[in-house]
Response regulator
Amino acid sequence: MTRKRIMVIDDSVSLREVVGISLRSAGYEVTEACDGQDALSKLNGSRFHLMICDVNMPVMDGISFVREVKQLPRHRFVPIIMLTTESRESRKAEGQLAGAKAWVVKPFRPDQMLQAVAKLILP
């Protein structure tokens, strides 16, 4: 069986490591990116089953990334979880409008994140 591929996009190296360890230990294949622009460059024809993205990042923020990725036919239906310190309802609404499927506020519990991943991951 092919492992499910998840991209983790966050400007914090330590957060990418924590999320990556949790996902890999649950059997997922993980690709990491440091911002939205880096993530777009790493899509290069690969299929991802899910993306986990921070909101506030340099170069290209998470909501701009979601808008961009939803314009790409190959990735239009890939579910995206926003993992962020941002808890304002206006930002959540903006993320949802852009196409994000879930909003998880940091600090998070790895088991909570893995449950969200399991619910949303594409077959």
